[in-house]
Recover the amino acids of this structure.
């Protein structure tokens, strides 16, 4: 008796399992039918891979020439076109860290004419995934591999050793070797200083909230620069930090912003990869300073300004130097004068006087005559860190693990 | 109205599992092809790519094997507990804590010789995983606290704990302020077998064999199966449910912890909070697909690993991450669905629906 | 509704007609051309031994199984049911042996569960349920939660479920198995009211006296075939029915010769214990079992018999008092130690306590002795199978293979396996709790003979049973339990049915 009952239950369960499968089949067939009447569109921005395709495109004509040059001068043991591949930590999406890198890739492809490809959503916490992605790309004959997340660093270092003929460029780390493994990053704290000026001038409550990912030097530097910028125009301002312990988690980032808004902040800045903090500010009627890319369209009322990345020129430089065999790895930390960082659009309602000031400082940064971290500089606990006129040394700047006066929060 | 009905076959189809594999793969590959076609990718190219990336040559095979190791051990961990009707949802945390214990051993034994250090790290990982399962085991055995909840919650705690270590006491002094654990000593890397495969594969196979035999053939495993089938029957036969619960959850954690140790010594360069990489959760699927039998776990893990490796590889030819993920799921589902069809017959019956 | 429009449902006197039903399961032909005709407004018994195909046939009628061949006609219209709900929609409701109720839902919620396709007002439903309950004397409060109800009350909820869905035909699958005798009688009058109301009841049973008592007609199945169709029950005697069921005249149990009581094997003194709800279940129970003696424990279910057996077997702790086996105090010994000391136990729940349902025949056969079949740390499969094969052949367990899961065995075969295993260990005392409950006539006889055999070999048997006829037939002494105490004691030959009945009701003469 029991056995028969059991069979019935199993059968019911299996029937339930089977129905979705059938539905899926029908759906797939239905979709397939639809697509035969409409032109097929790809979901990703695939670069053209054949010469035939590129004849109708002026820039890609250059690509062929560049490609042939590359073949003759640089290593091209696979006998195909010179090409570069990018590894992204998340899907490209419409804005943010990976989107900014992909804009850079497209720019580099346009400028150099070198074919580029990308793989998205490679978990940098998984050396196995990272290694598999790199090996696949190397096996596909790519000559330059650019990884855009910190966690790729160790694996890229190993792979660079194993594949000496391929150029590896790692973004946002600190390792390099003498031949084919370099790293690239930029002084985003410079435009953060500028956005700090705008935020400092805008806040009514003198409380600015800062949604921040992890207490690491890169983030601390940004918070400090932002705070110094805000203090420059508003000596009463406080910057309250709320850690999320994640780079990419819209729900958590939104919650963190909400907490700051409830605590009285009326401007939200962020070091995160999504627009969630901006949406929270928009919903609360507060203002927002974005990061990575100009995100004004996502929260048009809240948006004030943004610190943005402009990776294109650097990527073009890496790829073309690799193509003509002149690549040498350097620990690259580009600044305003290199054009790798900038301030995005500034909201119309920001006081014209402040905009003028911002533009002035920006020009000084471009000219290399302005140092964000220059004395007198005081730490959170009022200890003097830099004497009047003293410029922070490179090592301290790189490993910045403190907050300046004006920041409310614990760096852990 | 046509209703599909599954009717149990009196005898499983001759050819059984291999047939299921072919049948399921065909259906899944066909559906996948439709999907790829709609997404604008070339199915032939994509499939060739997946196959060559997972089984195409020794290198590809080694990648698949490396991937299958943690999946198989995590699957085994889940399956052992399931034999007694317990759900270890905490393999993820046990893997991570096992890896943490191994990393701790590596710090102590920085100067030890390679073989000694590796063995110590793997043993440490095993104990670490067991330790991480001990709390839920005691709570379940002594006062009946639901192990699903405790093991699940400990996953998150393990992540936080490692995060604390990396941000604090274990922060890499050579990391320029970046938050990371110190690099593992060079001699802690598992010796290779061929290409990228390392001896972790042999360790995993040995553990699968021994634990599989224990569960299916030993008197200890017999007691486990009795307890899993009916706790009252176990008590009737004089089997202590408390001791069994304790033992099985701790063993489950130990196996998962070992996976963490192998992952750390075999693939990683340093401890990260993501070293378990979802293997602990995937292990639940692996165990379920293997019908909770340790003997089936290895096979499913290799298939699972191959699909993952293949799925990653096709991203490089422009297949989007989303399409790749759906394709992986389709193939796994298709093969398993076909396994069902070996045991069950499909009837399309015209059924009248009555109503008053 | 796609009933044949040419057939006027009211013109057909038959509520149910099953014609040539065939249904197979792996390795088993459950129905091979089974026939059944049930008149409207009657109570129709479907009789047969375990494995005769009764339940399968009813599951076909109720839409749970689909027959490979044959015709199902309900109220004159030919039907093919795709599901139980389709059958219910056509007026066929079934009350299964295992109730399908949600313990934390109220009675009314359980009644509407699965049928609530539109917004329902619970108050209205409760009213409807209360009305139905009153109309058929189904005494149960619609607002109570099911976990609070007794088995008899839960069964009424199942019946209400079917009635609320306007079932014209109600199938009761061995409905009295879980009921006390009083509850069974109440059920008898409930179904009589339903029949008087024009509904038809199909009553599945293998208890002859129930069929005689409650039913109008009977159809007898044997080996998946109908051997007697629509017999008038009042024209038949129980032996006639039994003969039809088993194919030959039933064995009457030979009353064992009273033996000279020798050494005391089991001694229970002043035992106190709690039940699962932590309420006192045993109050100062003392008894003894001697060599070559069957001591019967009679009583209405729930008077401490289950707890007594569990305490003796070591599955439940005693609050106070002692249990001794020979001269050894085993009050605090583990279940395994007691077994090793010579105490076998046939528990009331043979599946779930005595046997593990998901495991194979072999796995179950070695439950007591697996440690002796070891080779190194592993269990030697060959030795385990040989051991199992001995039990299977010695105790006539009918099984396809030793690797078969016991879920596929019939109740009688399960019990043969369990009793065989317990006796194979050559115990000195065997505690048997409801050992023949739910078995067919042959199964009952076989088990009873095994117990008598054991007694004749000098074992002490403590037989706990709710079947007074059984106790009277084979016990040397009968103790009656009531309210957790031993209320009365009778020596076999002097035992008087009515006196025991009074003692069971708490009114000893």
């Amino acid at each position: 008796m029991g056995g028969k009952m059991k069979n019935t239950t199993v059968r019911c369960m299996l029937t339930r399992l089977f129905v979705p499968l059938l539905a899926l089949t029908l759906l797939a067939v239905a979709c397939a039918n639809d697509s035969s009447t409409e032109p097929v569109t790809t979901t990703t921005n695939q670069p053209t891979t054949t010469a035939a395709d590129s004849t109708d495109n002026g820039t890609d004509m250059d690509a062929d020439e560049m490609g042939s040059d590359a073949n003759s001068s640089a290593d091209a043991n696979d006998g195909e076109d010179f090409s570069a591949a990018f590894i992204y930590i998340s899907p490209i999406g419409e804005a943010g860290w990976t989107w900014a890198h992909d804009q850079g890739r497209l720019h580099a492809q346009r400028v150099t004419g070198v074919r580029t490809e990308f793989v998205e959503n490679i978990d940098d916490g998984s050396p196995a995934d990272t290694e598999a992605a790199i090996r696949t790309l190397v096996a596909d004959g790519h000559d330059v591999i650019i990884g855009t997340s910190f966690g790729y660093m160790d694996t890229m270092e190993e792979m660079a050793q194993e594949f000496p003929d391929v150029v590896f460029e790692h973004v946002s780390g600190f390792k390099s070797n003498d031949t084919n493994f370099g790293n690239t990053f930029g002084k985003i704290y410079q435009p953060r200083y500028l956005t700090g000026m705008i935020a400092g001038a805008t806040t009514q409550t003198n409380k600015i909230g800062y949604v921040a990912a992890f207490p690491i030097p890169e983030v601390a530097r940004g918070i400090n620069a932002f705070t110094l910028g805000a203090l420059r125009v508003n000596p009463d301002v406080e910057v309250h930090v709320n850690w999320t312990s994640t780079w990419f988690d819209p729900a958590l980032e939104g919650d963190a912003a909400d907490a700051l808004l409830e605590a009285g902040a009326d401007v939200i800045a962020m070091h995160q990869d999504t627009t969630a903090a901006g949406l929270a500010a928009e919903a609360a009627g507060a203002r927002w300073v974005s990061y990575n890319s100009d995100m004004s369209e996502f929260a048009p009322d809240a948006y004030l300004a943004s610190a943005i990345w402009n990776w294109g020129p650097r990527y073009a430089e890496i790829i073309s130097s690799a193509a003509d065999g002149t690549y040498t790895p350097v620990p690259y930390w580009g600044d305003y004068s290199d054009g790798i960082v900038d301030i995005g659009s500034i909201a119309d309602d920001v006081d014209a006087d402040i905009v003028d000031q911002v533009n002035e400082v920006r020009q000084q940064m471009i000219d290399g005559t302005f140092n964000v971290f220059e004395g007198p500089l005081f730490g959170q606990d009022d200890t003097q860190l830099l004497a009047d006129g003293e410029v922070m040394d490179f090592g301290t700047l790189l490993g910045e693990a403190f907050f300046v006066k004006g920041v409310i929060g614990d760096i852990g | 109205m046509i209703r599909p009905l599954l009717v149990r076959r009196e005898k499983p189809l001759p050819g059984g599992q291999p047939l299921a594999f072919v049948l399921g793969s065909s259906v899944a590959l066909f559906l996948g092809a439709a999907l790829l076609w709609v997404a604008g990718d070339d199915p032939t190219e994509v499939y060739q790519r997946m196959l060559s990336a997972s089984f195409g040559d020794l290198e590809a095979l080694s990648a698949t094997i490396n991937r299958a190791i943690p999946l198989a051990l995590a699957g085994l961990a889940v399956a052992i507990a399931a034999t007694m009707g317990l759900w270890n949802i905490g393999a993820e945390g046990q893997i991570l804590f096992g890896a943490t214990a191994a990393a701790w051993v590596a710090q102590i034994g920085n100067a030890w010789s390679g073989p000694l250090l590796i063995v110590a790290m793997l043993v440490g990982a095993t104990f670490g995983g067991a330790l991480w399962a001990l709390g839920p085991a005691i709570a379940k055995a002594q006062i009946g606290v639901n192990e699903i909840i405790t093991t699940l919650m400990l996953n998150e705690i393990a992540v936080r704990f490692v995060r604390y270590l990396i941000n604090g006491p274990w922060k890499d002094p050579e990391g320029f302020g970046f938050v990371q654990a110190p690099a593992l000593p060079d001699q802690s890397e598992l010796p290779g077998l061929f290409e990228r495969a390392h001896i972790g594969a042999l360790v995993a196979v040995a553990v699968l064999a021994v634990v599989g035999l224990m569960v299916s053939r030993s008197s200890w495993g017999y007691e486990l199966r009795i307890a899993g089938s009916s706790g009252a029957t176990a008590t009737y036969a004089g089997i202590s449910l408390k001791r069994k619960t304790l033992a099985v959850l701790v063993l489950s954690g130990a196996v998962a912890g070992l996976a963490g140790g192998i992952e750390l010594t075999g693939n990683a360069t340093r401890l990260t909070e993501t070293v378990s990489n979802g293997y602990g959760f995937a292990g639940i699927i692996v165990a379920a697909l293997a019908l909770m039998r340790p003997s089936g776990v290895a096979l499913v893990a290799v298939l699972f690993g191959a699909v993952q490796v293949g799925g990653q590889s096709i991203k490089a030819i422009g297949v989007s991450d989303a399409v790749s993920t759906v394709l992986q799921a389709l193939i796994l589902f298709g093969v398993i669905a076909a396994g069902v069809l070996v045991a069950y017959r499909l009837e399309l019956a015209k059924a009248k629906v009555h109503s008053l | 509704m796609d009933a044949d429009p040419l057939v006027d449902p009211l013109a057909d006197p038959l509520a149910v007609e099953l014609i040539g039903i065939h249904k197979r399961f792996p390795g088993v032909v459950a129905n091979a051309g089974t026939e059944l005709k049930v008149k409207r407004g009657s109570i129709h018994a479907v009789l047969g031994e375990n494995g005769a195909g009764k339940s399968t046939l009813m599951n076909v009628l109720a839409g749970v199984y689909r027959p490979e061949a044959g015709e199902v006609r309900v109220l004159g219209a030919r039907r093919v049911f795709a599901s139980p709900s389709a059958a219910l929609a056509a007026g066929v409701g079934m009350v299964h042996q295992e109730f399908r109720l949600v313990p934390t839902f109220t009675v009314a919620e359980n009644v509407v569960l699965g049928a609530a396709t539109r917004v329902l007002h619970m108050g209205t439903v409760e009213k409807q349920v209360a009305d139905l309950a009153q109309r058929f004397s189904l005494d149960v409060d619609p607002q109570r939660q099911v976990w609070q109800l007794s088995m008899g009350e839960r069964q009424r909820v199942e019946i209400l479920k079917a009635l609320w869905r306007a079932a014209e035909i109600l199938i009761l699958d061995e409905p009295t198995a879980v009921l006390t005798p009083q509850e069974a009688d109440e059920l008898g009058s409930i179904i009589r009211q339903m029949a008087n109301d024009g509904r038809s009841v199909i009553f599945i049973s293998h208890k002859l006296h129930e069929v005689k008592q409650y039913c109008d007609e009977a159809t007898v199945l044997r080996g998946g075939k109908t051997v007697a169709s629509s017999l008038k029950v009042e024209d038949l005697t129980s032996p006639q029915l039994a003969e039809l069921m088993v194919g030959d005249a039933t064995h009457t149990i030979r009353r064992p010769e009273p033996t000279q009581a020798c050494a005391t094997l089991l001694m229970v003194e002043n035992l106190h214990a709690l039940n699962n709800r932590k309420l006192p279940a045993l109050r100062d129970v003392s008894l003894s079992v001697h060599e070559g003696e069957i001591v019967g424990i009679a009583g209405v279910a729930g008077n401490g018999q289950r707890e007594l057996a569990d305490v003796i077997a070591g599955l439940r702790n005693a609050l106070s008092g002692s249990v001794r086996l020979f001269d050894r105090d085993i009050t605090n010994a583990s279940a395994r130690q007691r077994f090793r000391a010579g105490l076998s136990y046939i528990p009331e729940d043979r599946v779930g306590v005595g046997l593990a349902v998901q495991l194979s025949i072999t796995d179950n056969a070695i439950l007591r002795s697996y440690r002796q079949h070891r080779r190194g740390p592993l269990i030697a499969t060959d030795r385990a199978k040989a051991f199992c094969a001995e039990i299977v052949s010695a105790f006539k367990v009918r099984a396809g293979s030793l690797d078969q899961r016991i879920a596929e065995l019939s109740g009688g075969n399960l019990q043969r396996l369990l009793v065989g295993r317990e006796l194979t260990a050559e115990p000195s005392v065997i505690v048997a709790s409801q050992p023949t409950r739910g078995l067919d006539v042959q199964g009952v006889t076989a088990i009873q003979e095994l117990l008598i055999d054991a007694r004749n070999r000098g074992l002490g048997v403590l037989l706990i049973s709710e079947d007074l006829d059984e106790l009277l037939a084979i016990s040397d002494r009968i103790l009656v339990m009531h309210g957790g105490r031993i209320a009365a004691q009778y020596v076999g030959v002097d035992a008087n049915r009515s006196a025991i009945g009074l003692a069971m009701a708490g009114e000893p003469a």
About this structure: Confidence is low (pLDDT under 50) at residues 1-7, 248-253 of chain C. The longest strand of chain C covers residues 14-25. Residues 357-426 of chain C form one domain.
